[in-house]
Specification:
The protein is mainly beta and 166 residues long. The chain contains 1 helix and 13 strands; from the N terminus they run βββββββββββββα. The protein is globular.
Length: 166
């Protein structure tokens, strides 16, 4: 079942396509070439897991997925966000953010809108409370907002908010 696509903006040349068995939260991810309408050989790909991902640039993603012991929350969702470069083994990707095992999920969203570029990270402490951060030049800055406030934007809604409906 098609579980969504994250199209790189503003280029619109590639997409990260999620496919799940029977519509479950766990899905595989594969990189798709929008011009050729084919999956990219040796492109970005993740095995079946409860994953999240955002384009940083055409050769870099921020991802949260199952990369082994300690990488998931007790709910089975990502606990760690990593910066993953093209052709790099996912296990070697650099950790940029970690939540705690008791969090519901740790998620990321990258807005590549020219002039408004930003990377937002979210720790869902429970279903109603989040800690939100902005990553600026590798500096993590906590957004001083009530934990029960929501992030709302076109780019980030699906990536950052969808897991509130778990």
């Amino acid at each position: 079942v098609g579980a969504g696509a994250n199209v790189i903006y503003p280029e619109h040349t590639r997409a990260l396509v999620s496919l799940s068995r029977g519509g479950s939260d766990a899905a595989i991810m594969r990189e798709f070439d929008m011009a050729s309408r084919e999956f990219v050989d040796d492109g970005f790909a993740l095995p079946e897991a409860k994953s999240g991902f955002s384009w940083v640039d055409p050769d870099t993603l921020l991802i949260g997925t199952d990369v082994g012991d300690g990488s998931l929350t007790e709910s089975g969702y990502p606990r760690i966000v990593k910066r993953w470069h093209r052709r790099q083994p996912v296990q070697e990707a650099e950790t940029v953010f970690e939540g705690s095992a008791s969090d519901v999920i740790v998620a990321t969203g990258v807005d590549r809108t020219p002039g408004f570029e930003r990377t937002v990270l979210r720790r869902a402490l429970d279903f109603f409370n989040d800690q939100v951060y902005e990553l600026r030049d590798d500096e993590l800055i906590r957004i001083d907002a009530p934990t029960d406030a929501s992030i709302r934007s076109e780019e980030h809604t699906s990536e950052l908010q969808s897991h509130h409906d778990l």
